[in-house]
């Protein structure tokens, strides 16, 4: 017989080390959170206000920035507050809500990255039909499908994770509620439903990843057929931000979940998870705005207007 436990709250794991080290970690988290908020809010504002940034690519970028703001806000502020107050409890409903939101926003971001790769494919491989294919209605439909897909994805995993009975400890060895950490608390033999969802999700993600790779194979082959070197560099530069963000998204995710499978110490698991939850939302604004002349011009115009006011 398994010793089933009625859990009313979970205990999240804090940052490793003594109080001074924990405070330093919390400060670093706060600075990265502030940088992520500032960068993504700036991109959201520029792509909304500037008339020259009303193209499909910037429409998708605006949604990506909104997702990153929401995604990092689900986990980081509570983690910082837990460290500063030395209180690490989270209610059962709060944990379920946090899990849903984390998967919702990460799933939506993945779907949107696929849409953005399709946008680059059409822009480079079918430039004459770009405005017809990527019209306003089609862009809105693709973004809406991404948000709805992320919502369905989050709902399925929350239902699968919390359909199990929990046995023994309520300590989540993570600084936020995630599926692998919660499943380790489940009673033996009750992981089947969520594992089925995870396997199905992995298969779906793999198919989408292959489609993304295929689109970039076509993109690169089209770029290589451009006669002038300057034209090839200019065209390739329009793909670099998206390609970099996709690489960062997959690299951080793979590192995080491979590390979990190798069962590192709990303190190291917390630090590795920060790579996936904090790094992409913080770096995405820099990747898209650092060498983007349109974004730089829009920022100069906004700065000039604010200075005059």
From TrEMBL:
Pfam families: 7tm_4. Its main location: membrane. The chain crosses the membrane at residues 20-46, 58-76, 88-116, 137-156, 195-219, 240-259, 271-290. It is found in: Cell membrane. Keywords: Cell membrane, G-protein coupled receptor, Membrane, Olfaction, Receptor, Sensory transduction, Transducer, Transmembrane, Transmembrane helix. Residues 39-288 form the G-protein coupled receptors family 1 profile domain. It is a multi-pass membrane protein. It comes from the Eukaryota. One of its GO terms (cellular component) is plasma membrane. Gene3D superfamilies: Rhodopsin 7-helix transmembrane proteins (1.20.1070.10). GO terms for molecular function: G protein-coupled receptor activity; olfactory receptor activity. Odorant receptor. Belongs to the G-protein coupled receptor 1 family. This is Olfactory receptor. The lineage of its organism: Eukaryota, Metazoa, Chordata, Craniata, Vertebrata.
């Amino acid at each position: 017989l398994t010793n089933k436990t009625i859990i009313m709250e979970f205990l999240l794991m804090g940052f490793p080390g003594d109080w001074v080290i924990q405070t330093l970690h919390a400060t670093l988290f706060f600075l990265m959170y502030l940088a992520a908020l500032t960068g993504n809010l700036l991109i959201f504002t520029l792509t909304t206000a500037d008339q020259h940034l009303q193209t499909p690519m910037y429409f998708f970028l605006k949604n990506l920035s909104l997702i990153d703001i929401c995604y990092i806000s689900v986990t980081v502020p509570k983690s910082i507050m837990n460290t500063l107050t030395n209180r690490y409890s989270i209610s059962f409903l709060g944990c379920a809500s946090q899990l849903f939101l984390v998967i919702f926003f990460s799933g939506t971001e993945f779907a949107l990255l696929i849409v953005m790769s399709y946008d680059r494919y059409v822009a480079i491989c079918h430039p004459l039909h770009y405005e017809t294919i990527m019209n306003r209605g089609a862009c809105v439909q693709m973004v809406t499908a991404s948000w709805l897909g992320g919502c369905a994805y989050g709902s399925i995993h929350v239902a699968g994770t919390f359909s199990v009975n929990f046995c023994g400890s309520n300590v989540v060895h993570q600084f936020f509620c995630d599926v692998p950490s919660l499943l380790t608390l489940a009673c033996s033999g009750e992981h089947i439903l969520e594992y089925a969802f995870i396997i199905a999700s992995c298969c779906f993600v793999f198919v989408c990843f292959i489609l993304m790779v295929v689109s970039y194979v076509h993109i690169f082959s089209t770029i290589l057929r451009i006669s002038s070197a300057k034209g090839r560099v200019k065209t390739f530069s329009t793909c670099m931000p998206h390609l970099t963000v996709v690489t960062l998204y997959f690299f951080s995710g793979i590192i995080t979940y491979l590390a979990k499978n190798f069962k590192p110490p709990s303190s190291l698991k917390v630090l590795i998870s920060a790579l996936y939850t904090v790094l992409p939302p913080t770096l995405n604004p820099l990747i898209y705005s650092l060498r983007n002349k349109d974004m730089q011009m829009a920022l100069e115009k906004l700065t000039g207007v604010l200075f005059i006011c």
